Amino acid sequence: MKLKKTESPNPALIEERALRRETMQAVFEQGEWLTSEDINRSQASPPRNKWRPASDWKRRGRVFAVTYDGTDYFARYQFDDAYRPLPIIKDILQEIGEVADTWEVAAWFHYPNGWIANSADGTKPVAPKNALNRRDDVLGAARRTRETYES
User: Fold this and answer.
1) Residues 11-33: pLDDT tens digits?
2) Which phi and psi angles does 11 have, rounded to 5°?
């Protein structure tokens, strides 16, 4: 039996995967992330199922999660002080639309966005996670993001 010669990996694809992993690492290290169990324990009356209510909220599009080393993590900025989803998150996720890789969503929230300017000087971009109280600006940026994906 003759073995088939394997093709060498595409260098561009290897570089893209390495950059993606670096981005994931940076986003994860520079934020506060919660597991489903963390969210469960933070509820006033925690459900017996330790994955609830986070799994329900994720399924209903009220929050998003990223998978890191086999575990789902939820960005803390998606929740209020009682660890309930902020309503603006659902609206943003609807504006962004369906995205295959939730790390793209996490990166969108994490990195400064040129469509959201610092209210003090009006020029410096602000990360959407730091502008959640600016509903119109953040939803407009999410809408523009979806439009650039569709183009």
Assistant:
1) 877 777 777 778 777 777 888 99
2) -60, -35
